[in-house]
Design goal:
about 350 residues; 5-stranded antiparallel sheet; 3-stranded antiparallel sheet; 7 helices; 16 strands; about 30% helix; about 20% strand; Subtilisin-like protease; RNA-binding; RBD_domain_sf; serine-type endopeptidase activity; serine protease
């Protein structure tokens, strides 16, 4: 949950003129509420906490160390990565869902108000360390920037922010594969409301449209996403997703045989690739399988889910019957107790016992 005091976007270049910067802020969400943190026992600024080595703290100063620590772990696992690669790995693998699988919520102006969090509340989402270390694509930038950009739109960031969408915009992003073996990705775009999306994926300098590509290590691909908005919808959000093979199987089936620019597409599975071993246990298990193996495992998982649901339903019925039985027994005991109290013979017998004692 995004707390009420957490910083919100959008960011602006000039707060007085309210000129937007077209750079998404915040970039990511990290734990920062009631964190058990180190504290100076001198506590000059807050005497009431004098003598304590640890206290509960909240704020950006608590969320930032979490993000910095995760960045250090990524740097340890990938020593050659530049800061931009580390930052993009953290953003592109963040989650928009909480630990219950529900969308992350955000406080409104009133603490009793809760709304689904938007990118202006939590950026890319909640940071996920294990996924960030094991990402497949990053968005690199150079160490120096000698040329000024006409617009922040083409900064190679893992987000695209356009404050004034009028007519046609072409936005470019460079993604780099950091895998040691070829991998196949499907570029999926969930465009904002009222926006028409046309994407082009190809190698540097190429202009041929291709829905899928196999990228060897270090190969950089350009992705151009033109946006054309007819209705000026305020604060509309879209998402670009690079799906791995297993995630994209359904989309591939839908695309196979489709027509694009007068040509029929043939979309099938890439050759199976298996990655075993790895540093410190990462990717220790096969992460790809051929189509037959994948469908077999998928059927097994669906069968297990079906059996689990049936078992849960049966347990609920049994628990309900047990509760009803206990309620009936309790009701019967109350009725017997009431009848015993109203029975004249029982009352006389109880009175005789009382007098004899």
């Amino acid at each position: 949950m995004v707390t009420r005091y957490s910083s919100r976007g959008p960011d602006v270049l000039d707060i007085n003129l309210n000129i937007p910067s077209d750079v998404l802020k915040p970039e990511i969400l990290a734990p920062g509420d009631l964190i058990w943190a180190a504290w100076s026992p001198m506590s000059v600024a807050d005497p009431i906490l004098s003598g304590y080595n640890f206290v509960l703290l909240s704020g950006t100063s608590m969320a930032t160390p979490h993000a910095a620590g995760i960045a250090a772990l990524i740097k340890q696992s990938h020593p050659t990565w530049m800061p931009s690669m580390i930052a993009s790995a953290m953003s592109t693998t963040a989650s928009a869902y909480d630990n219950r699988g529900q969308p992350i919520m955000a406080h409104g102006e009133d603490l009793t108000q809760l709304f689904p969090a938007t990118p202006f509340d939590c950026g890319a989402g909640l940071i996920n360390p294990s996924h960030a270390i094991d990402t497949g694509l990053v968005l690199p930038t150079g160490r120096t920037c000698s040329n000024s950009l006409p617009s922040p739109l083409n900064l190679n960031l893992p987000s695209i922010s356009i404050s004034a969408v009028k007519g046609f915009h072409s936005v470019q992003r460079l993604v780099k594969s950091i895998a040691t073996k070829p991998e196949t990705y499907l570029c999926s775009v969930l465009q904002p409301e009222g926006v028409e999306d046309r994407r082009r994926v190809g190698g540097r300098g190429e202009r041929d449209a291709t829905p899928l590509g196999v990228h060897p290590f270090g190969d950089i691909k350009d992705v151009k996403t033109p946006l054309d908005q007819a209705t000026q919808k305020h604060r509309s959000f879209g998402f670009v997703t690079f799906l791995e093979k297993e995630d994209a199987s359904a989309a591939m089936d839908n695309m196979d045989g489709a027509e694009l620019f007068g040509r029929v597409l043939t979309v099938n599975y890439a050759l199976p690739e298996r990655i075993k071993g790895g540093e410190q246990g990462w990717a220790a298990q096969p992460i790809w399988a051929d189509a037959d193996t994948w469908f077999e495992r998928q059927q097994q998982e669906e069968e297990m889910q079906r059996l689990q649901k049936e078992q849960e339903a049966a347990m609920q019925v049994a628990e309900e019957l047990h509760r009803k039985k206990l309620a009936d027994q309790l009701e019967g005991e109350k009725e017997e107790e009431t009848e015993a109290k109203n029975d004249p013979m029982a009352m006389a017998e109880a009175e005789a016992i009382k007098q004899s004692s």
